[in-house]
Amino acid sequence: MPAQTILTIDTHGPGLYEFTNSVQQFVSRHDADIALLTVFVRHTSCSLIIQENADPDVQRDLQEYIGRLVPQANDPAMAYLVHRHEGPDDMPAHIKAALTQTSISIPVRERQALLGTWQGIYLWEHRNAPHSREVVLHLA
User: Terminal CA-to-CA distance of the chain, rounded, Å?
Assistant: First the structure.
C-alpha cells in the first residue's frame, strides 16, 4: 500500500501556494483505508504549512508578520548576517524555513486526507525570484 510521488510547484515570488487538491487527488488514487501522509519539501528556503484557505487576508497577514519578524538582509536589523552571496532574500529565507517546517503529517482515512473544513496545504515561498519547488508525498 505505500505510495510516493513528487509534485512540482512553480512559484513567482514570496507567498503561499495552495496545493491541497493535488494532495487529495494523490490520496484518493490509493487504497488507503487508514494511513499517514507525509508531505516533505526538498528545499531549504521555502516551507510547508497547513492554514486557513477561506480568507486570503490570513495569507496576507502571515506574509506581513514573517516579513517583520525576519526582514531582508539589507535591513539594518540584519547586519549580523554573514551568508549574503545569493542576495538579500536568501539567508532570511533560510531563517523563515527554519522557523516554520519542511514536512507535515496528515492522517488519511477512506482515501481522504483528514483536513479540517477551512484547512489548506501550502508551500510557503520565501525567496523573491521564481522557483520550481519539489514536494514529496509519501503515503504509508
Answer: 7
CATH number of the CATH domain containing 110: 2.60.120.460
**Is 106's pLDDT higher than 80?**
yes
- Domain that residue 89 falls in: 3-139
CA 71 from chain center: how many Å? Answer: 19
Q: Give the span between the Cα atoms of 14 and 87, in whole angstroms.
A: 14
Task: Please say if the pLDDT value at position 1 is more than 80.
Answer: no
Would you give the DSSP letter of residue 111? T
Task: Kindly state the cell numbers that stand for 15.
Answer: 507567498
Identify each DSSP E strand in the chain by its residue range. Answer: 3-11, 15-18, 34-41, 46-52, 103-109, 112-113, 119-125, 131-139
Count of residues making up the chain: 140
Percent of the chain beyond pLDDT 70? 100
C-alpha cell at 35: 494511513
Q: Does the reported pTM lie above 0.90?
A: yes
Number of domains into which the chain is organized = 1
pLDDT digits (tens, 9 = 90+) for 24-38: 999 999 998 999 999
Q: Is 66:74 a contact under the CB 8 Å cutoff?
A: no
